[in-house]
Amino acid sequence: MRHGLRETRITPPPHIPGEGHAMAMLAVLIPLLMLAVVLVLGRYEELLLPQDDADRREPVDVAPASAATSSPAPAGTPAPSP
Q: Is the dihedral of CA 34, 40, 43, 49 positive or negative?
């Protein structure tokens, strides 16, 4: 054995009571917190960038198919009298 070289051994840290329970709680809480952050940021974006009124309106009802197939009157035809 050479002089000056000695084997060093490190003792492991003492066991912390409840360490396994704390890790399980973190494993459950971290994804839930991340989901909450994403949802909050989505709501914040809606507040900062509101949609135009035209985007919020419902689409206009389309006329029935029978009205769409009829042709309009020629341009020079007078309207019928009541």
A: negative
